[in-house]
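mind reviewing this fold:
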Amino acid sequence: MSESLQHQQLVKQIIAETISIVGEENKSLIATDAVDGFTLPPLTSEGFRPDVYYHYGSTLIIGEAKTSADIERLHSREQYESYIKKCSLYQGNALFIVAVPWMDHATINNILCKIKKKHPGNYEIKILDGIGGAI
């Protein structure tokens, strides 16, 4: 499926954030289907494929980019829950990164907070605001 330019830019932002966390030397271990030159991310047990996936040693990073039109869709909510569940069950350092346009920060934050209450655990959620920074 062809993704919008905005979606591709948000995915690239997640990749850049992931590289800043894991280091340039581990860049080749990042999986994404949105950018050429990377391997394909694995499916979750619910059958969803994240935009960005990194798993090495004791670190798991799952990244998902959403445009304004997709943030609140049922399919998107099911993806968030699947990825958060995977992070909550992980025995190590898990991080779920979501990149959205800056004006959608409050909406995605509310959705993710509700889902996180259903899946407690030792993991983090980071929202990238779509204009180059994390909130």
